User: What shape does this take?
Amino acid sequence: MRHVQMEELCATSRVLIVAGKGGVGKTTVTAALATAAARTGTSVLIVEVEGKSGLATSFGVPALEYEEAEVRPGVRARTLTPDHALLEYLEERGLRRISKRLVRSGALDVIATAVPGMKDILVLGKVKQLERAGAADLIVIDAPAAGHAITFLTSASGLLDAVRVGPVRTQAQDVLDLLSDPMRCRVMLVTLPEETPVNELVETAFALEERVGISLAPVVVNSMPGDLAVAAHRLGTDVSTAGLDIAPAELRALTAAASFRHDRHELAREQAEGLAARLPLPQIRLPYLFTEIGPPEVDALADAFTAEVRALPDPSL
Amino acid sequence: MNTLTADLETRHVLVCCGTGGVGKTTTAAVLALSAARLGRRAIVVTIDPAKRLADTLGLEALGNVAHEIPRERWDARGTAAPDGRMFALMLDTPATFEELVRRYANGPEQAQRILENRFYRNIAGALSGTQEYMAMEKLHELHEEDAYDLIVVDTPPTRHALDFLDAPARLTRLLDNRIFRILMAPTRTGFRLAGAALQAFFRTVAKVIGAEVIDDVVAFFRAFEGMEQGFRDRAATMTELLAAPSTGFVLVTSPRSDAVEEAEYFAQRLVESDLEVSALVVNRVHPDFGDGNDAEALTVRAAELASRAATAPPATHDAISRMAARYANLAEYASLGQRERAQLADAGARIGAATVAYVPSLTHDVVDFRALDTVAAHLLSAGDARTRG
Assistant: This one.
C-alpha cells in the first residue's frame, strides 16, 4: 500500500487551522507541524491569533509581532489580532485617518460588542488575503482556545444570516468560501487522549462539518504516553537476571512509577481507539514529553509528526 | 494550613477561575459537594460541563434552572451533615438573556420587540462577552433569591479569564459611551446635535461596516430603551457582590507552566481590584514515587544500565534493558515532580493564597460522585495533599 508523505499533507490545502480545547497543546502541535513541513522544503507562515501564546517559547525566539519574523529556517511567524486586522481593513479602504478615531472613541467597541463575530471575520478575512497573496506554501493558524474555536470558525456563517448586505456580508462570504473549500483550507483538530477532550473533539468535528462545511485534516492526539514495555516482566526476575542489588524503597518506587506509566499508556490507547471508532478520521499520535516545550522538543515532535504522517494509508487525505 | 474548609463553612460566594482545561468545572462541583457535606445549602453554577459530569449532576434535561440533587446520590454513605443540600444549574446563555429581557422590560410589548429583533435572534448566544455577562446575571439572581448559603460559580472558558469580572463594568462603559448614547438618541435630534464632524464620522463608519448593520444594531439597542438604568444598577450590585468579604476566589490551575502563569496573572489582577484570593487549587499534579528519588542519580543509573545492556550477552540483555527503562522512567517522573513542586511553591508564594491545595493526577476522569469525593479528600486535606504513588 502506498503511504502519504509530509509533502502531500502540506500540499493538500494552503491553509491549515489548528484548533482544539484549551490546554490540549495546539501551540505545540502548530510548532511541530510547521517544523515538519519546512523540512520538506515547504515555506511556512504561522499566524498566531490569540495574542498570547507559547509559540515564541517553543521556538526559543522573542515574542512574536505583527511583522513576520523567521523563527526557524523555512518557518516565519507573526501575530494577527482583531484590532490590527480592523486597522488594515480600514486602511485598505482609504480610511486610515478615521481608524485611530474609531478605536479612541470607543465606537469600535460598540460595534464589536454589537456585531458578534465581527472580530473573527476580520481576522479570517486577513488570513484569506494572505492565502490569496500566496504568502507561503503553507499557512498554519494557531486558533483561539476553548469554546472559542467553534465561534471563531462559525462566525462567518452566523453573520451571513444576520447581515443581508454591505461590506461585512461580503467579508463574511469571502471567509466562508475559504473555510468551505477543502482545496484551500482545512482544520486540524487537536486533543489529548482523555475522555473529556476526546468527547469535545468529536462534537466539534461534527459541528464544523455540518454547520460550516469545513473539511477536516487528520486529527492530532497529543501527549500519548509511550509504552515502557515492561509490564509483561516481573521486576524481581529482571533484577536478579541483571545481577543487581536494589534497596526495597527504590524497588517500590520503580514498580510504582512503571505501573503509573503503564496505566497512563493503556488509558491513552483506549481513548485514542475510542476516538477512532467514533470519528472516521486518520490520527496523528504525538508522544508525551516530560520536559517543557522548547526547540529540542519541537524537533522531536516534528520527527514524530513526519513518521506518523508517513504511516497513514494513502486514501486518508 | 488548609483554609478551604473554613471558606466552605462561611463564604457566600466562591468564584472558580482559571484557563481552559485545568479542571475548573470539576473543582466547582467538588466545592459545592463538600459544602453540602458540611451542612450548607450549596449550589454549583456550571458552564459547559463535560457531558458525563453533567449527567452526574443531573443537568442533562434541565437547562437554566436550579434543581436539587437527591441526597442519596451525593451522600450514598449517609455521612453528610443533616442540613446539607446540594443544587446544580447549567448556565444557558440565550435562556438567561431571554429571562432577563422578560423580567426587566417595561411590559411584554418591549420584551417581544427585543426578542423578535432579527439581529438578536442570530446573536443571542454569540454576542461577545454575553456568556460572561449572563453568568454574572445568574450569580446576581441566585444571590437575590436568598435560597442558598453558598453559590459556587464556574467561569466561562474565556481567552482572558478576567472577562468575567469585567463584564458588569464593560456593560456600564458601553452604556456610558458617548457614541453609543448618540446612536441611541430616540430622535434625530441627538444626531443633529452631534455636530457636522461627528456626522461625517458616522457616515464613514456606515460606509465601512455597512449602513444596514449599523441600523440593525441601533434598532436592537434602542429596543432596550428605558432599561439602561436597571442594567447599570445591577452592574453596580454585582461589582459590590464580587468585592464583598463573603466572596472568595479560587484559582484553579494545572502544573503546566502556562496555566500557572495565567493563574499568577489573574491573582495579580484580583489583588489590584482588592479582591481576595482564597485558594490556589492545582489539579493533576504528578505523583511522587518516594522520598530521596534523586532525578540526576537515577538518570545516571539508567544510562549505565543502558550501556551495560549494549554489550551484555543475549541471556541478560533484555532484563538489563528493561531495568534501564524502569530507571529512566522513574528518573523522568522524579525530575518532573521536582520541577513541578518548585514552580508551584514559587507561584503559591507569589500569589499569596491562604491555601495551596494539590490534587494528584487521577487515572480516570472525574465523572461520578465517588470520584468527586476522592478529589474533595485531596482538596481539603490539610497542607500539601500530594499523594505517594
